[in-house]
Amino acid sequence: MSKVDLAVKIGSLKLRNPIMLASGTVGYGNEISEFSDLNKLGAIVTKSLSLKPRKGNPPQRIVETPAGMLNAIGLANVGVEEFLKDKIPFLKKFDVPLICNIAASTIEEYVECTRLLDGEETIKAFEINVSCPNVKDGGLQFGNDKNAVGLVTSKVRAATNKPLIIKLSPNVSYISEFAQVVKDEGGDAVSAINTLVGTAFNIFTRKPKIFNVNGGLSGPAIKPVALAKVLEISQKVDIPIIGIGGIMNWKDVIEFMIVGSVAVQIGTLNFIDPTAPEKMIKELEDYCINNKISKLSELTASYVI
Amino acid sequence: MFIINSSVIETKQVHENIFIQKIHSPEIAEIIKPGQFLNIRVSEATFPLLRRPFSICDVEGENIYLMFNILGEGTRILARKNPGELIDILGPLGNGFKLDDDFKSAIIVAGGLGAAPFPFVTRSLKNKKEILTFVGGRTKQDVITYGMENYILSSDDGSIGFNGNVVQSLERNLDKIDIASSKVFGCGPNAMLRVLKDYCINNNLDCEVSTECAMACGFGICQGCPIESTSNTDKYLLVCKDGPVFNVKDVVI
Question: Sheet containing B182-187: which strands, arranged edge to edge?
């Protein structure tokens, strides 16, 4: 039996397979490397980095909801400087494309972060977080505003030649309009979706269950929403899509590819079974063999409607 | 730390709504230390979705013990596991109690289900140190003495033991304790730990507590369980990785 070609391309970025680990669910790689051989994965995306370290929100940051969880971490991160000094040396040891996720409060901060990280050859691409719902100054304001997303894309584009991915918010009416703006301003790909805004209250104290009141909903509960958003972009805009949202197994990966994703990111599942993403690679290969598919990338946008 | 399926040997109800589950897990039993914890996936369904963190309650040979109450769907499923059924364990996680420090007497202070880590602590210190244990709860239903020795009981409503909280119970018995050669080990609700922290600091008692916080992963990647540090206010510590056991001097409870 000839080997299945699992490789996929996100613009000029080649991945050995479509399984990426999502930002905010792998830290800076060290903890998860104890469970999983990072070298087998398609790519890993760092926790969102900001120019200066961020402390993040006070507890409670997490609450479980039916088939999902709400989080309001508040972009706690070590900042660009410490990342380059203390985290890159560990990540350098691996032969897996490293994508840096950047979060910022101003356009200038996005550009400055990109500039500082651009010279580091270990970093193969950037993913710009314009859609974090959990910080007061930034994130969602950008993600909800087409002009702002366009401006962030064009300014960051000017600061790097590396592949540029914009992570889109699902908390908008027409996500494809945002994907179009990203394409028009020179972005190479979009990742969709970030978390959905949600909340949960204690019925006895009548207080919110998380400190930030609102959090970002992730996990299998959001998968149908994510699939619909990916499909919408796929039908309307010619841009590579990285599908994200509640993937729990290899079947979900296939489903995300069929509706239009070139690759996928695994998020919440890493908290539950950090060994799962690596196992999916073999399962994807088996699916291809059983269904006589020689190139996994053929699945992208292969929907029959 | 690793993920392993281990089989349930038996689940016993030792108190109203308190269960002790015995699990055959030689891999965990061999390396886990008192005060560490396990993050358990009770089913492969998407609800409950996340793992549940449990203190290691005790270790005996190749078997480990958990102590829990039924709080929601996750613990309900766990309590119903039949002998031979497998449970998915991620661990051992976190840092345990420092039991090798230079102290002669261990003062254990347990509030309610905060009793969970102390059978293993008691087993580990027995024959090496003197142990004096204070066990308290809101009512006698919440006072759990499983696996404890040489204990003094208290309850907030006076239904068993001293009528008052567990820290007041400790205070009443201070004459039994040589402060300089004792170390306090506490676990319980945050409100109790706060009072215990103040009491120990004011009385120069060395004290470690096991803290808890809602978390998803249990090993540092979700960043879901921050706890304020007393030495560096720019950065939170994580209950899962930096704790769950902390010296009371190091954290804001």
Answer: B162-163, B151-155, B130-137, B105-111, B182-187, B206-210, B245-247
Examine the fold and report which residue of B62, B92, B122 is the final residue of a domain before the chain moves on.
B92
Q: Which residues neighbour B198 within 8 Å (Cβ) at sequence distance 6 or greater?
A: none
Domains observed in chain A: 8-56+75-196+220-299 (3.20.20.70)
pLDDT, tens digit (0-9, with 9 covering 90-100), for B153-182: 999 999 999 999 999 999 999 888 888 999
| Tally of structural domains, chain B | 2
What is the distance between the alpha carbons of residues B78 and B88, in angstroms, rounded to a whole number? 11
This complex has an ipTM of: 0.95
Encode pLDDT of B193-222 as tens digits.
999 999 999 999 999 999 999 999 999 999
Torsion over CA: A47, A53, A57, A59 (sign): positive
Cα-based angle B193, B194, B195 (whole degrees, multiple of 5): 90
Q: Which residues of A touch B51 (CB under 8 A)?
A: 271-272
Assign A138 to helix, strand or coil: coil
Give phi and psi for B220, each to the nearest 5.
Answer: 110, -10
Q: In the predicted model, what is the mean pLDDT of chain B?
A: 96
Rounded average pLDDT over B74-84: 96
A132 is catalytic: yes
Cα–Cα distance for residue pair A296/A256, rounded to 1 Å: 12
CA angle, A74 then A62 then B118, to 5°: 125
Task: Return the pLDDT at A141.
Answer: 67
Q: How far is Cα B109 from Cα B124, in angstroms, rounded to an integer?
A: 16
Structural domain span for residue B114? 105-210
- Would the pLDDT of A136 be above 70? no
The minimal CB distance from B50 to the residues A61, A64, A274 is found for A64
Q: How far apart are CA B194 and CA B209, in angstroms?
A: 10
CA-nearest residue to B45 within chain A is A67
Q: Do B2 and A248 touch (CB under 8 A)?
A: no
The answer to whether B252 contacts chain A (CB < 8 Å) is: no
Cα–Cα distance, B157 to B29 (Å, whole number): 38
Distance from CA of A221 to the nearest CA of B (A): 9
C-alpha span between B247 and B251 (Å, rounded): 7
